[in-house]
Amino acid sequence: QVQLVESGGGLVQAGGSLRLSCTASGRTVNNAAMGWFRQAPGKERVFVASISWSVGSTFYADSVKGRFTISKVNAKNTVYLQMNSLKPEDTAVYYCAALGDSYMSFSRTPEAYPYWGQGTQVTVSS
């Protein structure tokens, strides 16, 4: 099992920045990748970004390319999501997820991730 704890959400004005953190614990040795997803009220959970744990390859949703950056510190089992130039449409609950021991190093599909954090609210005011 892998446990994930997120932090860093909050309220920010449009154009501002926030940094989310997610720390993994438990059986993290063979964790293939970490991802960030978000879910706005009444909408499905959607992919935001992911990073492969060994190589550090990154992938982004088109809606956040150039504004968000995913990074990791292996020694801390922590992944970050730096969010710049935030827009009101970025408002959502943001979830951290882990692929665990998987042959995949990337997935945009929430169903591929067996481990999830509790979520952190990000609200961007106009």
Walkthrough of the structure:
The protein contains no helices and 11 strands. The strands form 2 sheets. Strands 2, 4, 5, 6, 9, 10 and 11 form a 7-stranded mixed β-sheet that branches. The chain has a 4-stranded antiparallel β-sheet with strand order 1-3-8-7, with no helix packed on it. It has strands at 2-7, 10-13, 18-26, 33-39, 46-52, 58-60, 68-73, 78-83, 92-98, 115-116, 120-125. By secondary structure, it is an all-beta fold. 0% of the residues lie in helices and 50% in strands.
Average of the residue pLDDT scores? 94
Radius of gyration: 13 Å
Q: Which secondary-structure class do the elements indicate?
A: mainly beta
Give the tally of β-strands: 11
Shape annotation: globular
Number of helices: 0
Instruction: Give the proportion of residues in helices.
Output: under 10%
The biggest sheet amounts to: 7 strands, mixed
Distance between the termini: 40 Å
**String of helices and strands:** EEEEEEEEEEE
| Poorly predicted runs | none
Hey, roughly how much beta strand do the residues contain? Answer: over 45%
Topology (SSEs and partners):
Elements (H helix, E strand, L loop, with lengths): L1 E6 L2 E4 L4 E9 L6 E7 L6 E7 L5 E3 L7 E6 L4 E6 L8 E7 L16 E2 L3 E6 L1
Parallel strand pairs: 2-11
Antiparallel strand pairs: 1-3, 3-8, 4-5, 4-9, 5-6, 7-8, 9-10, 9-11
